[in-house]
Amino acid sequence: MSRVSEVKTLQDKRIKEMKERFQKEEVSDSKKIELMIQNMTQTLNDISFTLAMIADKDKKI
């Protein structure tokens, strides 16, 4: 599995878990926003890590 696929899979998993939590629990709008921001932040971290890996790989060539 490529790193891009891993990042996409992790993002999809987090979104699914977040939606399930919203359905199971009474979650306030502010908490929903907080969780969505956390999800976006983690996705950006995954993307940054992937780009860093690509940059490091390119330096070795």
Report what the structure shows.
With 61 residues, the protein is an all-alpha fold. It has one domain (3-59). It is built from two helices and no strands. It is elongated, with a radius of gyration of 15 Å. The chain starts with a helix and ends with a helix. The relative contact order is 0.13. The mean pLDDT is 83.
In short:
It contains 2 helices and no strands. It has 61 residues and is mainly α. It has one domain.
Count of domain modules: 1
State the order of secondary-structure elements, H for helix, E for strand: HH
Average predicted local confidence, pLDDT: 83
| Multimerization status | single chain
Strand content is under 5%
* Class derived from helix and strand content: mainly alpha
Which percent range fits the helix content?
over 70%
Span between termini: 22 Å
Q: Care to count the β-strands?
A: 0
> What about the largest sheet?
none
With helices defined by DSSP (H or I, 4 residues minimum), what is the helix count?
2
Rg calc: 15 Å
Q: Which descriptor suits the 3D outline?
A: elongated
Poorly predicted ranges (pLDDT <50, ≥5 residues)? Answer: none
List the helices and strands and how they pair.
Layout lengths: L2 H22 L4 H32 L1
Helix pairs in contact: 1-2
Short key terms for the protein model shown above:
61 residues, mainly alpha
